[in-house]
Structure formats: C-alpha cells, structure tokens
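Recap slide: Class I SAM-dependent methyltransferase, sequence and predicted structure.
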Amino acid sequence: MGFVVPPEAYGRFMGRYADPLARVFATFAGVGADADVLDVGCGPGALTADVLQSGAAVTAIDPSPPFVDAFRERFPDVDVRRGTAEELPYEADRFTHALAQLVVHFMTDPVRGLTQMARVTRPGGTVAACVWDGPTGALAPFWDAVHVLDPDAQDEALLSGAHRGHLTQLFGAARLRGVVEEPITVDVVHPTFEEWWEPYTFGVGPAGEYVRALDAASRDELEKVAQGRLGDGPFTVSATAWAARGAV
C-alpha cells in the first residue's frame, strides 16, 4: 500500500510527523534504559532512533525492502529483518516491549498482529501501538481538501484504530490486560505550503496513491483547494494519534 518507496520520500512525507511522535509514544509506552524493544513496522527508523537514545536495546522488523535497507544502513548494529507483524520470526517471551508506531491501521489482520506482538513479549511486559486519529491526524488537512472535490473519497479515517476506542477493542481481542488508550499530539510547523504539499506527490501511502491516480488538471485543482484552506505558510498542523498499551 504505497510503502515500497524511497526512504527519503517517506521521510519527507511522514518522517516530519513520525519523528516527534516517536518521543511522545515511547514515553507513553514506558520505555526506559533497561527495556528490550521490538519495533514492529520500523520503517526507516523514527521510533528506533528515539528508543536507542533512551539507552534501550532494539530489534526491528518491516515488510518494505527499501525501508529495511535504509534502516540497516542507518543502524548497522541493530538486528532488522524483513517481515510482517502477523508472522513475527521471534521466539516467545523475548522482549520487554513490542511497539508499533503508525502500523496497526495497515496490518492485514490487526488482531493477529497484536497477538503475535504479545506472544514475543515477556509476561508482565508491554505491547503498545499508536495510529493517527482519522479526523485530526497528520493527514486530516489533506483529506479535508480532497473531500471538498470528492466527497465520497475513501480516506484513512476508516482504517483500524483511527477512532477512539478501536485500539482498545483490538487489544482486548488480542487478550492484552489493563489496556489504556489516550490521545497523543504533536505540532509540526510547515514553513511554506509547497513544503507541506510536495511530499503528497511522492506516492507514499493511501494519500500519495490518491494523488498519483489523479490526472494533471485534477491534481492542480486539489493543490489549489488545499492551498486555499491552509494558506501560503507558515502554518502548524496539530496531529493527534490514538495510543494504546496493554500488559501481557
């Protein structure tokens, strides 16, 4: 789903939000220096970078070959593998924390993915995940502009976990205990409209795929609508994610 892309493109598209989100999410998950963390759906490594700064150990996995290659180059001492959350290639009870940042909503089977994360986490350990809120997440300004022109466009608000309480339901189905779900927010300043808009043309994720599918005239029209709503810049996008954690 639009993630076999150059890591640089993903970084400009989502890294600008994922990097600050990682700091908030790792704190929410209770990661400390003594943690042994599995970063599920690690991408180019936003969450791993923050966890390593805390002094914790990290193992990582992602299904995208370009991301795995970029991750390996960035963190040569971290064990990273290509694979999915639904089929984690690790023994049971290995990690103190299994974390998934901006991943659950793209799992083909979220309950199985979370169950696998629980399987590889030690008893008493923590499984945690976060996903953008549909109406107020990082991509909401884009989809708001899309819906002006295409009211029936399927945005990312219907993906798993994108509304209050859905992550809690998924965690419960995965038999995690003491589940806590909270909103976490990051504010990202965009200096110009062009800096905000250009990454949407890179084909990353559902939003990028939507733009790539438009003809030139429709793409220009969408760009004008978005600029009319956001202005020329600078402007701030306040991006809210739902975060949940539970005990094994």
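The longest strand covers residues 177-190.
The chain is about 40% helix and 25% strand.
(End of recap.)
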